[in-house]
Specification:
This protein is an alpha+beta fold. It has helices spanning about 10-25, 130-165, 165-190, 195-200, 215-220, 230-245, 255-275, 285-310, 310-330, 350-365, 370-375, and strands at about 30-35, 40-45, 50, 50-60, 65-70, 75-85, 90-95, 100-105, 115-120.
C-alpha cells in the first residue's frame, strides 16, 4: 500500500476508464454527496449525512490526480478511490453508521492531504440484512482469517530462517509469506496502523517515519544479501500478523466494504505491481499481482449471487474481464505454484502493456460492484 502515482500513460488510461464510469448510471439506494476536489480543496456539498448507504460523487477539477478516502476518526479506512485523474468523476459507495468521519483528498497522491469532517446521524439500515450478503460476509471473514493465518505461519518460517542466517531460504519464504496478506490487504486498512507498519515501501517514507515490515526485509535480503540486522523486523512482522489475526473476528466487514476492497486490490495492482514499484528490490511483483487478483475475485464470487440478480450484465462483464486478466497472468507463469512467476524486471514492455490493459478493462466494471450490492437493499 501507500503506492506512488502511476506513470502518466497508465494514469491517462485509468482516467479514461473513470470518465466512462461517471457516464454510467450507478443505481444506489443511498444518498449522493457531491465532492469538489482540486489541488487545494476537498469539499463535500454536505457535511451532515444520514446513516446507511452513502455515495460520494467526486469531481476532480484540479490539475493533479487525486485520491478520495472516507476515514474513521482514528484514521482507519472505510473506503477509498485512487487514480482520480484531472477532469475525472468517480463514485465511492460506503455504509456509514451514525458517528463522525473524515473525508480526505490527496492531490498529487502525496502527503496527508486535505480533510473535511462530516457527521452522520440516524438509524442504519444495513445492506447485509439481505441473507445472501450476510452469507457472503461470513464467507469472506472466514477467507480473511485463513489468509491471515497462512501469512502468519510463513512469516514465522521467515523469522526462523533469518535468525539462522539463511539468505536463500529467507528469499524463498519471503515471496510465499506475502501471498495471504496481498489477497486481503484492504481489511488491514480498516485497522489503520497495521498496513504502514507491515507494507510501507522505502520510496513512500515520510520525514520522521520509522520504516518496518516486509520491504525492509526485502532490501536486506536482495540488496545487502544478508540477514544482518533483520531479526527485529522479522519479530515485529510476526507480532503484527498475530495482531491482524486477532482483529479479524470483530473487523467491520459488510457488503459494500467487501466490494470496495476488491476495487482497492485492483488499485494496488495498478499503482504498484504494473509499475514494478512494489517489490523494488526482489522484483517479485507478479506474485503480489496474482494474490491481489485472487483476493478481488474471491469477493466477486461471494457477492455474485446478489450482483447477478441486480445487474446481470455487470456480473457477466466481471466474469469475462476477470478471466481475461487471469489468462494474461497465466501466460507469464513459470509453473503452477502461487509464487512461480518470473522476475518482473525480465518481463518485456509488450507483456507489461497487455497486463496493464487487462487490469484497466477490469477496473471500470469492478468499480460498480458496491453500487450493485446496494441495489438489492
Amino acid at each position: 500500500m501507500f503506492a506512488t502515482s502511476r506513470p502518466a500513460a497508465a494514469l491517462a488510461v485509468a482516467a479514461a476508464a473513470a470518465l466512462a464510469l461517471s457516464a454510467c448510471s450507478d443505481s444506489s439506494s443511498g444518498s449522493g454527496i457531491a465532492v469538489k476536489a482540486s489541488d487545494t480543496e476537498c469539499t463535500p456539498d454536505s457535511t451532515a449525512l444520514t446513516a446507511g448507504v452513502n455515495t460520494f460523487e467526486v469531481n476532480n477539477v484540479g490539475s493533479k490526480g487525486t485520491e478520495l478516502y472516507v476515514l474513521r476518526p482514528n484514521g482507519s479506512t472505510i473506503g477509498e478511490r485512487e487514480n482520480i485523474g484531472p477532469g475525472t468523476k468517480v463514485k465511492l459507495t460506503v455504509e456509514l453508521p451514525a458517528g463522525e468521519y473524515i473525508v480526505r483528498c490527496r492531490p498529487g497522491d502525496i502527503g496527508d492531504g486535505i480533510k473535511t469532517n462530516i457527521k452522520v446521524t440516524g438509524e442504519t439500515k444495513a445492506v447485509q440484512a439481505d441473507a445472501r450478503i450476510a452469507q457472503a460476509v461470513t464467507g469472506y471473514r472466514t477467507y480473511v482469517a485463513a489468509q491471515s493465518a497462512d501469512s502468519l505461519k510463513l512469516a514465522k518460517d521467515l523469522q526462523a530462517s533469518i535468525k539462522a542466517g539463511d539468505v536463500e531460504k529467507s528469499k524463498t519464504i519471503y515471496a510465499s509469506s506475502r501471498v495471504g496478506w496481498e489477497s486481503v490487504e484492504p481489511v488491514a486498512e480498516a485497522f489503520g496502523d497495521l498496513d504502514p507498519e507491515m507494507d510501507l515501501r522505502e520510496a513512500d517514507l515520510e520525514a520522521g517515519q520509522t520504516w518496518t515490515g516486509w520491504h525492509v526485509i526485502e532490501k536486506g535480503l536482495w540488496v545487502k544479501k544478508s540477514t544482518a540486522g533483520l531479526n527485529v523486523f522479522a519479530d515485529k512482522l510476526v507480532a503484527n500478523l498475530v495482531d491482524l489475526g486477532s482483529r479479524v473476528p470483530t473487523a467491520e466487514i459488510n457488503g459494500t466494504s467487501m466490494a470496495n476492497g476488491a476495487k482497492e486490490l485492483l488499485d494496488e495492482v495498478a499503482t504498484g505491481k504494473i509499475t514494478g514499484e512494489e517489490e523494488a528490490f526482489s522484483h517479485l511483483d507478479l506474485v503480489d499481482f496474482q494474490a491481489n487478483v485472487t483476493g478481488a475475485k474471491k469477493v466477486f464470487d461471494l457477492l455474485k449471487p446478489v450482483v447477478a440478480e441486480s445487474q446481470p450484465d455487470l456480473a457477466t462483464q466481471l466474469d469475462t474481464t476477470f478471466a481475461a486478466l487471469q489468462k494474461e497472468l497465466d501466460a507469464v507463469r513459470t509453473g503452477p505454484g502461487v509464487t512461480e512467476f518470473p522476475s518482473y524486471d525480465t518481463v518485456d514492455k509488450a507483456t507489461r502493456d497487455k497486463l496493464a490493459a487487462a487490469v484497466d478493462a477490469l477496473a471500470e466494471p469492478l468499480s460498480h460492484l458496491a453500487a450493485a450490492v446496494v441495489t438489492t437493499a
